[in-house]
Design a protein that fits this description.
By secondary structure, the chain is of the alpha+beta class. It is built from eleven helices and 19 strands. A hairpin with a 6-residue loop joins strand 10 and strand 11. Bound molecules: acetyl coenzyme *A. Its EC number is 2.3.1.-.
Length: 412
Amino acid sequence: MASRSIPCTPVLKFRELPESELDRALDLAYLAFHEKPGAELRAHHRELLRGCVRVGAYDGDALVATVSAFPFTLSVPGGELPCPGVTFACVAPTHRRRGALTGMLAELFARCAAQDWPIAALWASEAVIYGRFGFGEGTRGFTVEIDSTRPLALRIAPDDRPLRLLSPADAPAQLAALYDRTRADRPGRIARTRAWWTDEWMNQKDEEDSAYSPPRVVALGEPLAGYAIYRTKRDHDAPGLVRVDDLEAESPAVAAALWQYVTSIDLTAKVRAWGRPVDDPLLLFAADRDQVRVTAGFPALWLRLLDVRTALLRRSYAAPVDVVLDVHDAHLPANSGPHHLTSGPAGTSYEPTHDPADISLAVRDLAACYLGGTTPTALVRAGLATEHAPGAAAALEAALRTEWSPHTVDGF
Ligand SMILES: CC(=O)SCCNC(=O)CCNC(=O)[C@H](O)C(C)(C)COP(=O)(O)OP(=O)(O)OC[C@H]1O[C@@H](n2cnc3c(N)ncnc32)[C@H](O)[C@@H]1OP(=O)(O)O
């Protein structure tokens, strides 16, 4: 593909980042993210980038910024879609705010279109950056903290089958099928390859805090009915902390047993679970909400509908719908303009129309609704969408609704 430049920054050129420049790209990333990784982690990042679609921004011959996209598959209502995970977006401090990210994303979007990737996603370092490029909050997460100095108070009886610890080497083979089943319920979940399970989830070393133990895996049920992946850390005199990284259960009783387990580990006084689903049943079956507290809520996966039509055609709908959407997309104008969305027993269609719009909204806000996390009526109430035909937002909301809240816990 030819390199392209953007008018506001004639000096920067955007083109594919060749493998020969991976080390320079990593140096740039560690500079921008203030990181100093060891040789092992650097080699891991290098390998990850090798498998990515990569774009560089060049000032003359010098690489001054990069962004990459990792080929993931994301669960969406009723199925899954290829979804590049945008990552390692970094600009040299000497070249910030000169349109490097803007130009690289334009180049990346073109490369995604060439691959027929209808959506893209990312985790943002700062929430303010990506809305302008059409990314919306596709999933949200809660940080939950549990005071485990006393037994976990529950309103339901936990499953009383025995718990067993799995070795990290054996865990992926045993956990994968259950995790995969949860992807059918919860949009926003990434398909975990065996390498992803091993390198990301079962990594012996916590990349961000070396004080944490290796991953521990506790399982319940044969066949598997639930699991928790957690790490612990304890300073000499301070009470220990249990960090729950992932917990999946097929029933509330199984979830209750797993939460009871992680809150009853000796020499620990607190459990922290980061990125829990906003509709985590724990928040209802915990008897004492002073003991189980949501301490933070945050945007998790930011979603970009690169090809709105394909994205809308390839998800399912919870109710029949017949509305004209007028989507505004400044970066990918092919998505803009009034389109007639219908879905029912005969299937789904989304075609351009001259009919007047029922709802107008920006592509980032449609992206926020796409997995079922944000609702069109909430957007109207917030002044972010305009409802031209009374009841249209409610009708669209009924169609986009998902039974479970969308949720993402895999960072990249
Ligand atoms: C998916 C990921 O990898 S998330 C990680 C993102 N990377 C980082 O946080 C590393 C450190 N930061 C950086 O490398 C850079 O500052 C980046 C990547 C965040 C931004 O790159 P830049 O090339 O400076 O962005 P660019 O010049 O294209 O900015 C486009 C617009 O976004 C705005 N913008 C960009 N970054 C920020 C920010 N951090 N805060 C507020 N506004 C921002 C710019 O002001 C500009 O606004 P305008 O169009 O109104 O003038």
